[in-house]
Design brief:
There is one protein chain. The chain is of the alpha/beta class. It has a single domain, classed as P-loop containing nucleotide triphosphate hydrolases (Rossmann fold), CATH 3.40.50. Helix content is about 50%, strand content about 10%. It is built from 7 helices and 5 strands, in the order βαβααβαβααβα. It has a 5-stranded parallel β-sheet with strand order 2-3-1-4-5. The protein is globular. The protein starts with about 25 loop residues before the first strand and ends with a helix. The N terminus is likely disordered. Bound molecules: shikimate-3-phosphate (S3P). The site of shikimate-3-phosphate has 10 residues, from loops.
């Protein structure tokens, strides 16, 4: 897959200074894409803050994601997600950061509009659905929308067009976390230079 800023592993940013105009990088993609692990690695590499939107939701709500789904359903979860995103965007003035969004956040039109208005960079971490499902199965994290393989696959397909609206797309299949973090830094460096 190629999109506007598709990364190439043999392009190297000279230094994080390439990202001097960027306030925040938002990692988007389906469950199992590696948004949190790549986000942590990227933030470490850039010496930026890291934030996971799901963590903020749990903190604001005082409940786990699983509990929110159980008590309030997916609709209640999406409302909490948008509230948390608004709060996070307001807090961006306090330091540059890498943000991992939950898999459904960027596909909600209202959230995508908020992110676009904020003028931050969005990066779609892509992988084949079979690999995404396998990664989810291997993790301890309980994901209410990843319990059934067929439903997982359908949802992934339905969301794909929305993820592709991100500024750049990076393929993660078969790559380790640090390699993907490096590709994200490289591709954003060149996108900014354009
Ligand atoms: C969701 C993904 C999860 C979490 C919630 C809903 C989704 O985040 O926000 O379970 O709708 O795809 P991860 O993508 O980090 O697993």
């Amino acid at each position: 897959m190629k999109s506007r800023g598709s990364a190439s592993a043999d392009v190297h940013p000279a230094a994080p200074g390439h990202l001097s105009g960027v306030r925040a990088i938002f990692l988007v993609g389906f469950m199992g894409a590696g948004k949190t692990s790549v986000g942590r690695a990227l933030a470490g590499r850039l010496d930026w803050l890291f934030e996971d939107l799901d963590d903020r939701i749990e903190k604001i709500e005082g409940r786990s994601i699983v509990q929110i789904f159980q008590d309030s359903g997916e609709i209640g979860f999406r409302e909490a997600e948008t509230r948390a995103l608004r709060e996070l965007l307001i807090s961006l003035g306090t330091g540059r950061r890498v943000v991992a969004l939950g898999g459904g956040a960027f596909v909600q039109d209202a959230n995508a509009a908020l992110i676009a208005e904020a003028g931050v960079h969005s990066v779609f971490l892509d992988a084949p659905v079979e690999e995404l499902f396998r990664r989810c199965q291997q993790e301890q994290k309980v994901r209410p929308l990843a319990l059934d393989a067929a439903r997982f696959s359908e949802l992934c397909e339905a969301r794909r067009a929305a993820y592709l609206k991100a500024d750049i797309c990076v393929q993660t299949s078969g790559k380790d976390v640090n390699a993907v973090a490096w590709e994200v830094a490289c591709s954003l460096g060149s996108a900014i230079a354009q």
